[in-house]
Amino acid sequence: MKRFAFVALHAQCWPVRQQCQLLGVSPSGYYAWRKRAPSPAAEPAPAAGQVAAHRVFTIHASRYGQRRLRAQLRREGHAVCRQRLRGWLSASGLRALYTRAGTRPLRTTQADPQAIAAVTSSPPGP
Q1: CA distance 56 to 10
Q2: CA-to-CA dists, residue 51 to 44, 70, 97, angstroms
Q3: Arithmetic mean of pLDDT over the chain
Q4: What is the DSSP letter of 105?
Q5: Are 29 and 55 in contact (CB under 8 A)?
Q6: Alpha-carbon span 100 to 39, nearest angstrom
Q7: Which DSSP letter does residue 62 get?
Q8: Closest among 18, 16, 76 to 49, alpha carbons compared
Q9: b or e along 61-70 (b: 16 or more beta carbons within 10 Å of the residue's beta carbon)?
Q10: What is the distance in angstroms between the CA of the first residue and the CA of the last residue of the chain?
Q11: Per residue in 3-50, pLDDT tens?
């Protein structure tokens, strides 16, 4: 909690009780917060997870969004939450590609007119 962190930061300058009263928190809550271990979400994420996320993203040709990417990373043994993954992707400037509804893929090849004429002009077999 940010209020408790503020109290801890200024504990040398101001009495804890007075700070807690001004911030609207209980002193017992502050001391309980101080005893607790930091949550895993508060700890910095390992760089290995970020590298693995970038690797999986590029392997799948930028087609994996945060949900499929997270599932793949979990299968590989990296425990990462979607919000952290979303932060990594946006910080790296990576966005998943997707096909919009109602669009058709571009036709990249042109039919050979001579081949079409040869097929259509020949008489049917016996």
Answers
A1: 44
A2: 14, 13, 20
A3: 84
A4: P
A5: no
A6: 39
A7: T
A8: 76
A9: eeebbbeebb
A10: 86
A11: 999 999 999 999 999 999 999 999 999 999 999 877 765 666 667 888
